[in-house]
Every structure is written in C-alpha cells, then in structure tokens.
Design a protein that fits this description.
The protein is α/β, with parallel strands linked by helices and about 230 residues long. The protein has seven helices and nine strands; from the N terminus they run βαβββαββαααβααββ. The chain has a four-stranded mixed β-sheet. It has a three-stranded parallel β-sheet with strand order 1-2-3, with helices on one face. Strands 6-8 form a two-stranded antiparallel sheet. α2 links the parallel β4 and β5. The longest helix is centred in the C-terminal third of the chain and has 22 residues. The two termini are about 20 Å apart.
Length: about 230
C-alpha cells in the first residue's frame, strides 16, 4: 500500500524491482496531480481516501507493507497517534510500515560550481521552512524512529544523503511544499500577519524558482524509518 501517491515513483520502481510479482494499492486524498492511469502499470490500483478518516473494514489487516512519504504538510501532533494506529491497523501481523521524510532540521543551501545567481529568494524559502508557523514544529521527523518504536517494533532508522543528480527533483519538491504550506496558511489565515506571510512566501518562492534553475538548491537529508507490526 502506497500512501501520498502523487509522486508515483516509489510504487512504480517497486513493481519493476519485483518484476510485477505483487500488486500495489495507491491512496491519496485526491488523484488530481497523479499521472493518467494509462501511464501507470496495470498492477497499481488507485484509491481516493482521506487518511485521517477510518479505512474501510475490508482493507484492515490486508497489507504486507505500507509506505508513507512526504507528510510534512499534513502532519499534526494532535492527531498523529490515531493516524499511526490507523496505518498499523492496515498491516497483516508481521507486516511493515516504511516511512520516508525529508528532515528540515538538516536543510541548507547548496550552490553549483561557477553559479553566480543571487540566493535571496532561496534563503527566504529556507527561513520559512525552518519555521512555517509558530504552531508547527518539524522536530517529529528527527524523532520519527522513537515515535514508531513506541507503537510497534522499530527495525530500521537511517538517514540518506541525496545524490546531486536528484537535486533538481528535490528543488521541485521544496517549491511544491511552499505552495502547499501557502494554501494551508491562506485557508487558515486569521490575522493580517498571516496574510502577509503568505504573500511573502509566494514572492520568495517565485524568486527561488528562478535561482534554482541556475544552480541554487535546498539540500536536506532523507529520514527512513521501518517498523514491524507484532505477529
């Protein structure tokens, strides 16, 4: 089972690696940004569902592996415990929950050799990602292993460095995160300061997009945690 399917890379590569010997259910709250079904392997079944709502009973205890990635924009400390319990309920006894997340605590700006482009917009985006709202904290990413280990058996917790060949894809992910954060902030804006913060972020992201095309990037480590449900 693949959650947050928009990128589609993980399940597609999994099917290729296993020579299509398995099938994958792919869930997201909306498939509007996903590739057309005709572009995807026939082994992928697309399901639209809000992960914060209970899963249908026929899905419970049905999966050998549940894969989660890129939930920075939707994680909530208030609902995290119930969310993870819902995810574990999807697994068969002995099944695995694999969680991959970029760690904002490791964020830093990198610049390609001979790049003379200004970094101002990228620096503003980096500052925002370090503190998007006073009510949001990204400390949970570094603590993800402990969090899952308290609710299941933690079998792996690792950090990976991104290859330079993937930096442009990383940059696109950063800009998409800014758009998502901006949308959420705009929806929940209660003060003029909130509204101004959204406008500032939009301007900074536009500048950063140009800078990133010319060799500027925001680098961050990838945290991967794997937990196993009791047999």
């Amino acid at each position: 089972l693949s959650l947050s399917f928009i990128g589609s890379i993980w399940p597609v590569e999994l099917l290729q690696e296993l020579d299509h010997a398995v099938s994958v259910d792919a869930i997201d709250v909306s498939m509007a940004q996903c590739p057309p079904e005709d572009w995807l392997p026939k082994d992928i079944n697309l399901i639209t569902h809000d992960v914060y709502k209970p899963f249908p009973s026929h899905m419970l205890g049905s999966y050998d592996l549940v894969h989660v990635q890129n939930w920075l924009c939707i994680w909530s400390n208030e609902t995290s415990d119930g969310l993870v319990r819902n995810l574990l309920a999807l697994l068969k006894p002995g099944g695995f929950l694999q969680w991959s997340e970029q760690d904002p605590a490791s964020n830093r700006i990198i610049v390609a050799p001979n790049c003379k482009t200004s970094q101002g917009g990228t620096e503003e985006v980096l500052n925002f990602l370090s503190n998007p709202r006073q009510t949001i904290s990204f400390e949970w990413v570094s603590q993800l292993g402990d969090f899952l280990g308290q609710r299941s058996e933690l079998v792996a917790f690792d950090r990976y460095t991104a290859m330079k060949e993937h930096q442009m894809l990383w940059n696109i992910g950063v800009l998409q995160a800014c758009e998502e954060f901006g949308t959420n902030l705009k929806r929940n804006a209660k003060t003029e300061d909130d509204t101004k913060k959204v406008a500032d972020l939009e301007v900074a992201a536009e500048k950063a997009a140009v800078e990133m095309l010319n060799g500027v990037g925001i680098y961050s480590e990838l945290v991967v945690a794997v937990a196993q449900k009791a047999s």
